[in-house]
Design goal:
Elements: H1 2-6, H2 13-25, E1 60-61, E2 69-70, E3 77-82, H3 83-89, H4 94-98, E4 104-105, E5 114-115, E6 121-125, E7 128-129, E8 152-159, H5 163-166, E9 173-179, E10 186-194, E11 198-209, E12 212-223, E13 241-259, E14 262-277, H6 279-282, E15 292-305, E16 313-326, H7 329-333, E17 340-357, E18 360-374, E19 383-398, E20 402-413, E21 417-431, E22 434-445, H8 449-453, E23 455-456, E24 459-460, E25 468-480, E26 485-502, E27 508-526, E28 531-543, E29 558-568, E30 571-581, E31 593-606, E32 609-616, E33 627-628, E34 631-632, E35 640-648
Parallel strand pairs: 6-9
Antiparallel strand pairs: 1-2, 3-8, 4-5, 6-7, 8-9, 10-11, 10-35, 11-12, 12-13, 13-14, 14-15, 15-16, 16-17, 17-18, 18-19, 19-20, 20-21, 21-22, 22-25, 23-24, 25-26, 26-27, 27-28, 28-29, 29-30, 30-31, 31-32, 32-35, 33-34
């Protein structure tokens, strides 16, 4: 069994012990000590009540510990966005959602999230990791891989490192998108139109038939090139990805309840994402109808056991595929054509189990992932890599106030060998409204196939790249002043050696040291039944050992998020602000400070019909997060509007 799981060769005693613990935990929960597991109706493990508050997602979160825990007892900074928040703001994309979260930016034109200054963020759908190896050159997944806002039940964002449970990509944060399951028989239609010939059509159907339920979405999104603020031209931002796009998306989730403790979930999504770049409109060599494209076809099957308990588990098989088709200027100029087709497939199996043993809450799991990559620029056959992993975390309850969380992850990579990633965390719940939390975790992040082998005009791989190594820390306090007012303050720090970046020649290299550090403050208050507001501030400073990177984004050192919310009768309105200054050099950015405002207004004209209007970038601000050689590279779009109607049947 050991050889099948972890390959042949000598095995250390620690490794054998780790696997033995995982297999013991994985016997479906039927070992003798399993009688301590708390199921629905039982209150166990320290002061955590379970249920009745289990179904109150304002109190319970899943992502921080990979199982449901009370947010006041987990040593993490967790932000949640619910489907009600998405519906209230009629967010059109995950990018729009994240750009209104304190400490996160998603630059226009590249569509990857940056958390506290770095883009080393893990993206999950229902706890399943999305990969970007070999096809894209960013450090995380492009948001075009997220199929629809209509099938999102909840988004959980965990700030700080999470590599002990989730692996090497969870350096500065984790974004887990939790999808909806069918809860009632209902069909919805959402139609909207707006600036730049935007036309969006989306439909959903959900239903229940006995123990079987389904949730299905389909959408079409089209637009022409967006306008830039002020005197910004497409020639000035020749690399910026335009809104000129044509997207089709389809998702399906099927659930079958075997009994109250066991179920099966089959889910999949298909996305055909086509877009243009401003370069197409400024270079006569390229006709403006030459779209680049990305194709996603993902499917997973999950067996869930011990549901409706504090210690659920699952067994998942998945098969994800991504393909990109674009152009290459050098190949086109040389008369060799310009097609560049790349493909990436990852398939594997994940197993997780958990149980309560006295004042210990144990989470453990096994992963086996195989990736296969073929990029148009390299002269190699399909490059394959296998990663096997084991993780173990113990949340120890030290009385009613203290939680001590040690954990570790073991990865065995076919290219880079094996590595341990330990973690230590503390949580002190001073009272029902206050918690202090702190965590430390080790980072080990290997280079992707793209970074090793790519050979194209604007990127050169390096087969001598060393893995990134380092550590992350976070220290914070969360306090509710009452039922209507809350505050969260935390300090964060990331220190990486041999960080992977690109130099002036667009070649991947190891940078001696990369650091991100700063402070985050969030304050929310509900004034009365109609009015509420929130204010957020983040100071983030990123240093790359004096190295002038050509591939990194620049987050303003001072970034503010504001929100004013009104809800009365049939009317609902939200005014959202994004303000930034500091750290944007006048040599590379047209604007070194900005204050952008978005406004959305909803009117519920019928129980099953809502009309809405969205006005984005009201102040028509010119701002960018990436600049070099005296020019912005990805300027944000100018002022725009969207008007639509949402119908339910």
């Amino acid at each position: 069994m050991y050889k099948k799981l972890f390959g042949r060769g000598r095995m250390s005693k620690c490794k054998k012990l780790a696997i033995t613990l995982a297999l013991a935990a994985g016997c479906g929960g039927y070992l003798p000590f399993q009688t301590n597991v708390a199921f629905a109706g039982q209150a166990a493990y320290g002061d955590e009540e379970f249920p009745p508050t289990y179904l109150d997602f304002n109190q319970f979160v899943i992502t921080a510990d990979r199982i449901p825990v009370n947010k006041w007892t987990t040593p993490a900074n967790v932000i949640t966005i619910t489907d009600k928040d998405i519906e209230a703001n009629h967010y059109q994309s995950i990018q729009e959602v994240l750009n209104h979260v304190n400490g996160i930016i998603v630059p226009a034109g590249i569509d990857v999230p940056i958390v506290n200054g770095l883009e080393k963020v893990l993206i999950l759908i229902d706890g399943h990791q999305l990969y970007n190896d070999g096809v894209g050159y960013r450090d995380t997944v492009e948001m075009s891989a997220i199929p629809s806002m209509k099938n999102i039940k909840r988004i959980e964002i965990v700030k700080g490192g999470g590599s002990a449970l989730y692996g090497s990509d969870a350096v500065t944060g984790i974004i887990n998108i939790i999808t909806k399951k069918g809860e009632r028989n209902e069909t919805t239609f959402d139609f909207n139109t707006g600036s730049w010939h935007q036309h969006n059509y989306e439909a959903t159907n959900q239903g229940i038939a006995g123990n079987f339920s389904w949730f299905i979405t389909g959408g079409i999104h089209k637009s022409k090139p967006f306008d830039y603020p002020g005197n910004i031209t497409r020639s000035h931002n020749s690399y910026s990805r335009e809104s000129d796009k044509s997207d089709n998306a389809f998702t399906v989730r099927l659930d079958y309840e075997i009994d109250e403790r066991n179920s099966l979930t089959l889910s999949g999504h298909h996305i055909a994402h086509k877009y243009n770049r401003a370069y197409e409109y400024t270079n006569p060599r390229y006709p403006t109808d030459r779209y680049k494209s990305m194709l996603y076809n993902n499917v997973s099957l999950v067996y869930n056991f011990k549901e409706n308990s504090q210690t659920p588990g699952w067994l998942r098989y998945f098969n994800d595929y991504k393909a990109r088709n674009g152009y290459d200027q050098a190949r086109y100029t040389a008369g060799r054509g310009d097609s560049r087709i790349s493909g990436f497939r990852v398939q594997g199996a994940d197993y997780q189990n958990s149980w309560i043993l006295g004042q210990h809450k144990i989470v453990t799991g096994l992963e086996w992932h195989q990736t296969g990559t073929k990029h148009w620029s390299w002269d190699y056959d399909n490059i394959k890599a296998i990663n096997r992993a084991f993780y173990l975390q113990d949340t120890i309850s030290l009385g009613k106030k203290w939680k001590f969380v040690p954990g570790a992850r073991y990865d065995d990579n076919s290219d880079y060998g094996h590595q341990w990633s330990p973690k230590l965390a503390f949580n002190y719940r001073a009272d029902d409204q206050t918690k202090f939390y702190a965590s430390w975790g080790r980072v080990y992040r290997a280079a992707s196939p793209y970074q090793l082998y790519v050979n194209q005009t604007n990127r050169q791989g390096n087969r001598d790249l060393r893995p990134e190594k380092g550590h992350t820390e976070i220290l914070g306090i969360e306090h509710d002043f009452g039922a209507k007012t809350g505050m969260n303050v935390n300090l964060f720090y990331v220190d990486l050696d041999d960080a992977i970046d690109t130099n002036e020649d667009d070649r991947y290299i190891n940078v001696k040291n990369q650091k991100s550090r700063g402070v985050e403050l969030t304050f929310k208050q509900k004034i009365d039944d109609d009015w509420s507001y929130d204010v957020g501030y983040v100071y983030a400073k990123v240093d790359i050992d004096g190295f002038n990177s050509s591939g990194s984004f620049t987050q303003p050192r001072n970034n503010y998020r504001t929100g004013i919310h009104y809800n009365h009768g049939i009317w609902q309105a939200n005014l959202l602000g994004n303000i930034g200054h500091g750290g944007l050099s006048a040599k590379s950015f047209d604007a070194t400070r900005y204050a952008a405002l978005d406004l959305n207004v909803n009117c519920k004209v019928h129980d099953n019909a809502t009309v809405y209007l969205k006005l984005n970038n009201l102040t028509n601000q010119n701002y960018s997060y990436y600049g070099k050689n005296g020019s912005n590279i990805y300027t944000s779009p100018g002022r725009s509007f969207i008007a639509g109607v949402d119908l339910k049947f």
